[in-house]
Amino acid sequence: RIVYLNGAWLEEADAKISIFDRGFLFADAIYEVTAVIGGKLIDYAGHAARLQHSTTELGIRCPLDPDALLAVHRDIVLRNAVDEGLIYLQISRGAADRDFAYPENTTPTLVLFTQAKPVLNNPRIKTGISIATLPDWRWERRDIKTVQLLYPSMAKMEAVNRGADDAWLVEDGFVTEGSAATAHIVTRDGTLVTRPLSNAILHGITRASIIDLARNAGIAVEERAFTVDEARAAAEAFITSATNFVLPVVRIDGQTIGDGVPGPISKRLRAAYIESRLASAI
Ligand code: PLP
Q1: The domain spanning residue 97 has which CATH number?
Q2: pLDDT tens for residues 197-211?
Q3: Ligand 1 atom 3: the closest Cα is on which residue?
Q4: For this structure, is 126 an active site residue?
Q5: Of 42, 80, 98, 158, which cross-links 35 as Cys (Cβ 3.0–4.6 Å)?
Q6: What keywords tag this UniProt record (predicted)?
Q7: How many structural domains are present in the chain?
Q8: Shared-domain flag, residues 186 and 89
């Protein structure tokens, strides 16, 4: 793979970062993941806007202006001939002597790489996935997309050890979100229920698109927190994320959701998302 590191295009084996990089020592870094289909970027404007939110909240400087950042995204797809997959972008505050206080005048470290992945033909779409619920022990600024991913990683491993595909995280009895995705349910009267935006969850770009598409399709949407019990009794459940689009959930803590197969509203929203995002991909 050809990767991007601070203005240079390098073979991945030649891309090196300092051991003093604060991304490595403090997880003092943020990231974004953008899906690529047919060599085009999906929902790019949303990811670029959230990147801006994350860097602003942490006072990390993005080394490229918006036009240059888009150009690098386009270039990395071409250089790696990516048809379907993702672009990972990370910006850390940069390297400095180890100190909890932010050092002044560091040069941020900007990295982009690509990864091939079957997004449209993900084999789990037909079967749906199973979820285990676990306590949400992350920090309280989940609106910032930091690389502090150890707890989500532990939660996913615990879910897998319990025989599930992924974890939904729970705080005060309410589902916050998945380990790396937004959690949604559909009630028995066909209402899409998804947690409102706050610092308790990442503001999912796919979430925002799905809410719009649902409303346009005449599906009622309630932005409110839901409990694990409500999710287990729901007609349908699904997750959304940049590289999963809409992925049905058919089991939560061993309890079958609906008929145990991907539900009609989940399937409809997935199809609507794919149609609209392919049409607007750049
Ligand atoms: N919530 C968390 C914790 C995530 O890591 C992600 C990212 O994939 C999402 C939600 C979904 O966000 P998006 O739809 O922007 O990919």
Answers
A1: 3.30.470.10
A2: 999 999 999 999 999
A3: 180
A4: no
A5: 42
A6: Amino-acid biosynthesis, Aminotransferase, Branched-chain amino acid biosynthesis, Transferase
A7: 2
A8: no
Q: Report the CATH number at residue 148.
A: 3.20.10.10
> How many angstroms separate the alpha carbon of residue 97 from the centre of ligand 1?
32
Tell me the residue range of the domain where 158 lies: 124-280
Ligand 1 site residues, Cβ closer than 6 angstroms:
33, 177, 180-182, 202, 204-207, 240-242
Kindly provide the b/e burial profile for residues 213-229, where b requires at least 16 CB atoms within 10 angstroms of the residue's own CB.
bbeeeebebeeebbebe
Q: Structure pTM?
A: 0.96
Active-site entry in 16, 40, 126, 145: 145
Best of 32, 138, 202, 239 for a ligand 1 pocket test (most atoms within 8 Å of beta carbon):
202
Measure 105 CA to ligand 1 centroid, in angstroms: 31
Q: Name the domain boundary from 116, 142, 167.
A: 116
Residues 241-256 pLDDT 10s: 999 999 999 999 999 9
